[in-house]
Amino acid sequence: MTENPRNISTDLRGIGSLTVDAVTGITDMVELLHHTIVSFAGMLGAPDQQRTNGITGMVYRNIRGITRWVGSAVDAMLGEFGAILGEEASSRGREAALSILNGVLGDHLVARNNPLAVPMNFRHKGKPLDDQALANLVEKADGRLVVMVHGSCMNDLQWRRHGHDHGAA
User: Distances from the Cα of 122 to the Cαs of 92, 139, 147, in angstroms?
Assistant: First the structure.
């Protein structure tokens, strides 16, 4: 286990936000495809990037509106449960899943203020470091300092596996 606190309601709120984004994004794509097919714009020239109108447009607007409304209601409800559920230590599996999610959708998560966004920072033994903690570690260094930068979709906890510590090596 890592010592990073986690609250299940915050994780669920982040997942809910991503779900709303996915449903509304897919709805947007389907509506644009529908509009392009109906208007024959794809065959006659440049595609028309407008939304549909009439009853069809109303259906797509309602899908987006209801999805956002349900997402907001679930988010508010989970916000109320946050204090009840409390915090616990995060697991290596959760940290790996967050790393993968941020490696693929990190910019989107940050832009949407999603609680699953992992801020970029220095870490030591699975914990993020503030400026003072980082300065203390650098000061205690015995002349050798290694800064390891992981690849996409990974995190600092993955430097140690099956008894091997890449940093120590």
Answer: 17, 15, 9
Structure tokens that stand for 121 in this block: 């920072």
Asked whether 56 and 32 are in contact (CB, 8 A), the reply is no
> pTM, whole model, 2 decimals?
0.71
Residue 6: strand, helix, or coil:
strand
Quick one: pLDDT at residue 1? 45
How far is residue 36's CA from residue 49's CA, in Å, rounded to a whole number?
8
| CA separation for the pair 134, 119 (Å, rounded) | 16
> Whose CA is closest to 114, among 2, 19, 25, 1?
19
DSSP state of 91: P
Which residues partner with 164 through β-bridges?
A: 161
CA distance 89 to 56: 48
User: What whole-number percentage of the chain has pLDDT above 70?
Assistant: 91
Q: What is the CA radius of gyration of the chain?
A: 22
Residue 138: exposure state from Cβ atoms within 10 A (0-12, 13-18, ≥19):
exposed
